[in-house]
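Lab channel / #folding
Pinned by the channel admin:
"Please post every new chain as: sequence first, then the structure tokens as a reply. Keep commentary short and put observations after the output so the thread stays searchable."

First post following the new format, from NK:
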Amino acid sequence: MSIRTNLVAASLVVLVSAAPALAADHLMKVGEVMLANAGGSTAVQFIELEDPGAEGFPSTPYVLEVYSAAGGTALNTYAMTLPSGTMRYVAATAQAQADFGFTAQTTLTATLPASGQACFRRNGGTPANIHCFAWGTITGIVPGNSMNNGTSPANGMSVQRVSNTYVVATPTPNAANSAGTVDMPMVDGPPATDAGVDAPGATPDAPGGNPVTPGDDEDGCSVGSGASWLGLAMLALLLLVRRSSTQRKR
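Reply from TO:
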């Protein structure tokens, strides 16, 4: 019994040590975008990033990049330093901060386009793109990316991520998103690559959405493959223990 127990313990140590490392920043998403207040003023805009996992963010700094509907070269790039455990990061205009009564981590210095794209990226890391989101009618995808997509929110509203689904609702900058006042649901694109962080399967875009069919969360994480690898390794370990037990009985 002692020999078998030691064998199992040693094998588990090897399995844990050899398991693929998971990214420490891959859960951060572009979670909310507002383009104008109820009066149509584009002076009130913000982009909010959300991370429910309270990750470590080892690659400093990161960047938030804003693109046009055509993608191509970024219109604006905002550098950011994310302390470990950051769960919300907002880039907002000065007027949005005044109207909603909060202080953003970054001030937007350029107008967000009516149809555009935003990406949260590692600055020089691999892979660079962690999460992208497109709103309105886009004509091209940011190079090297596929992304989530949603409608351009009406004046005074925002398009925001609620339970892995994008909806148009009452703005909630610097606070948890809420679908209490929903205008039009917008869902994520094709199946996720980050081990089910997003809802599985594809759901068609709502009318007026993007003609380009984006994928979901191309963040290069190894969660799914790591889980499969570990499962096979555990099965092999169980077979080894069973064989050892049979031989001892003989």
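NK: The CA atoms of residues 165 and 187 lie 5 Å apart.
TO: also worth noting, The two ends are 14 Å apart (CA to CA).
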